[in-house]
Design a protein that fits this description.
This protein is α/β, with parallel strands linked by helices. Helix content is about 45%, strand content about 10%. The chain has helices spanning about 25-35, 40-60, 65-80, 85-95, 105-115, 130-135, 160-170, 185-190, 220-230, and strands at about 15, 120-125, 145-150, 175-180, 195-200, 215-220. The model has no long low-confidence stretch (mean pLDDT about 95). This is Haloacid dehalogenase. Pfam families: Hydrolase. Keywords: Hydrolase. InterPro entries: 2-HAD, HAD-like_sf, HAD-SF_hydro_IA, HAD_sf, PGP-like_dom2, S-2-haloacid_dehalogenase.
């Protein structure tokens, strides 16, 4: 919970991470282990996807998120000592990123925040076309003023410049923006860039204990929205 003794003016813009924060990845959590015949495959794959997006960033290389996702499937096969998937199967699995439903609590939480007068912007490591497809499929695209992709800067969150680029595009100062995410690394990155943050404690997600705690945290989006609205 935030410290109520500290006055903070309400943010103007709320940036929302997408995968896991807004969208339920249950389809992929079932499909990836099934494809490999290994119950550990999803965690291995998604961890590699995030890890090597950061490797691209720190080495000054850039590959689209979907390409890293496919490469991470090959790495998952090697690390789990399973057979590599066919190119068709890999594309089908990565394509599921665009076919994920919203978490049940998300529409209500977004409506609460929209009714309270906040500008809502989706902000993701996925390419712009993927982001648009995700929000349309999940039936939540109408809540957002716009969507932003790191494709513009060819660096992945939580790099400092990804948040700075978002601020510049939106024409706002860091103190006017709050990032909502279900990932401790995204929360840490946003706060390092001078933004406030809200952490949604989705199952299996946790904060980075060595980073500054988020401004707000809750079990779902409505509980977080109530804190933000005040």
């Amino acid at each position: 919970m935030p410290d109520s003794s500290i006055y903070r003016p309400l943010p103007k813009v709320l940036l929302f991470d997408v995968n896991e924060t807004l969208l339920d990845m249950g389809k992929l959590k079932r499909a990836v282990p099934k494809a490999f015949g290994n119950k550990h495959a999803f965690k291995q794959w998604f961890g590699l996807l995030l890890y090597y997006s950061l490797v691209d960033t720190v080495t000054g290389t850039y590959h689209p998120f979907g390409h890293i996702a496919e490469a991470a499937l090959d790495m998952t096969a090697d690390m789990l000592e399973e057979k590599r998937l066919s190119p068709t199967t890999k594309k089908e699995l990565v394509g599921l990123l665009s076919q994920l439903p919203a978490h049940p609590d998300v529409p209500r939480g977004l409506q609460m925040l929209l009714d309270a007068g906040f500008r809502l912007v989706a902000f993701t490591n996925s390419p712009q076309l993927t982001l648009d497809a995700q929000l349309r499929y999940a039936g939540i695209i109408h809540f957002f003023e716009r969507g932003l992709s790191v494709d513009e800067v060819q660096l992945y969150k939580p790099h400092f410049h990804t948040y700075q680029a978002a601020l510049q595009t939106l024409g706002v100062a860091p103190t006017e923006v709050l990032l909502v995410a279900a990932h401790g690394w995204d929360v840490a990155g946003a706060q390092d860039a001078g933004l406030r943050s809200g952490f949604i404690a989705r199952p299996g997600q946790t904060l980075y204990p060595l980073a500054t705690p988020p401004t707000y945290q809750g079990k779902d989006l409505p509980s977080l929205a109530r804190q933000i609205i005040g």
